Description:
Layout: E1 2-8, E2 13-19, E3 24-32, E4 39-46, E5 52-59, H1 64-75, E6 89-96, E7 107-108, H2 111-119, H3 128-141, E8 146-151, H4 161-164, H5 170-176, H6 185-198, E9 207-213, E10 217-223, E11 226-230, H7 252-260, H8 265-274, H9 277-282, H10 287-295, H11 299-323, E12 328-332, H12 333-338, H13 340-347, H14 359-362, E13 370-371, E14 380-383, H15 388-399
Parallel strand pairs: 1-6, 6-8, 9-12, 12-14
Antiparallel strand pairs: 1-2, 2-3, 3-4, 4-5, 7-8, 9-10, 10-11, 13-14
Amino acid sequence: MKILVINSGSSSIKYQLFEMATTAVLCSGLVERIGLETGSITHKVFDDNGNAEKHSLKLTIPDHKVGLSEVVKLLTDDKIGVIADPTEVSAVGHRVVHGGEYFNETTLITPEVEAKIEEVIPLAPLHNPANLQGIKVCTEIFSDAKQVAVFDTAFHQTMPERAYRYAIPEHLYQEFGIRSYGMHGTSHKYVSRETIKYLGLEGKESRIITIHLGNGCSMSAVKDGKCIDTSMGFSPLDGLIMGTRSGDIDPAVIFFLEEKLNMTPPEIYDLLNKKSGMLGVTGDSDMRDIESRFIEGDEAAKRGLDMYTYRIRKYIGAYMAALNGLDAIVFTAGVGENDAGARRLTMQGLENLGIKLDLERNNVRPADITEIQSDDSKIKILITPTNEELEIAQQAMSVI
Length: 400
């Protein structure tokens, strides 16, 4: 069975084609600059050993339908194609950022499901329209395939009311759904499940904190495989300090910016989402550049990393309390998996909680689950590589 995974953005499409019998990636790619004068497609074809042959195209891509049509040409090409015909694709798994309170699990897409995804666009105005567009185009192009929605918010729907409600008037929740939803759920679900399996805690009590650190950052408290709290809230802006997002901030700051600096709501939204976080504090959003400056003694980089890692430690303490104990802390995603320096700085000062990092073990960029705690640490510290695309493919297969 072959399953195509699609992550459709406003001007881009990421894709991977899996052979589910072996979970091998047959090909993957990125369609970029949709709607601009010159677009591009980067397409990789993988052999049996996982080695990639890269192909790049420059062409005009006016819309998502043209972009996906070009992808189909590459998938079925006489020389580099991996399938003979689009009908070989049994299902298309779509990443959908927001499912509101309607969806707590992966769902076969019907017209009614599309209508619900459209209904919650106000909760994710930058993401859901593009996700929905990808669904509509794939339904037309891969007409024989089942279309499946995998929601970023679904994993967090097990949170208790005390965790997801805000202390605002009741009607704002009842009428407009203003509450914490959380994001990165596909990643948190994958790494927590794989960690629980690795620790031999399947079917047993388990208490895990998952830390997803990339350009976007979030944490989840996972008890017995279910999310009981997460750091992102109504939107992806809440919680940890991120590459360009502020994370937690006093709401009064927004009114100050509006009243004292005459900033408009769109300007404030842009400031907090695209000009804040590590970019706002250090002038850089790339952790590799920030750490290079940190090593050289740059004061802004020191300040930024101190703030970044302190915020993570605060959430670790809070989630240990919410879980009433802890079995393991799990780092994942681009920064979490590859940045030994960020992990080291994050773990400093947690020794009295029984959390002790082994500096030598930490100095890795692993392909598989790796333990990096010291021998006398009471709590395990792991790096668990995430694979959101495989998780989407597996969930899509389970539905069909």
